[in-house]
Design a protein that fits this description.
By secondary structure, this protein is mostly helical. 75% of the residues lie in helices and 0% in strands. It is elongated and about 90 Å long. The model has no long low-confidence stretch (mean pLDDT 84).
Length: 106
């Protein structure tokens, strides 16, 4: 039962949404359009927030390693390129202080 539901989830969700939209249009009443469309808009905002967040959480579970390695590799590449750019094109050295020389090192 759950396998069929998982296979046809988008199809079922589409038809349920379409049925809800038709029910909304059929239930419209004169002099209440503002309230009805306001509730319709807020319903869509709440649905969008809940559905998109849950979809992204599930996608993150399946493709989570990508979202760990991709930003980390971008930071690493950025640091390396900044070092090389500063080394070849920079006018001042990274550090202007020099290490102090102490007596003999034993």
């Amino acid at each position: 039962y759950l396998n069929k539901l998982a296979n046809y989830h988008r199809f079922i969700s589409y038809w349920l949404y379409l049925g809800g939209f038709i029910a909304f249009v059929l239930s419209l009443q004169k002099k209440k359009y503002m309230v009805q469309f306001t509730l319709f808009g807020w319903t869509h905002i709440v649905l969008l927030c809940c559905v998109v967040q849950s979809h992204l959480i599930i996608q993150n579970c399946f493709e989570g390693l990508y979202w760990l390695l991709y930003p980390a590799s971008m930071v690493i590449c950025n640091d390396i390129m900044a070092y090389f750019f500063g080394f070849f094109f920079g006018r001042t050295p990274l550090s202007s202080s020099r290490p102090r020389k102490h007596g003999k090192v034993s």
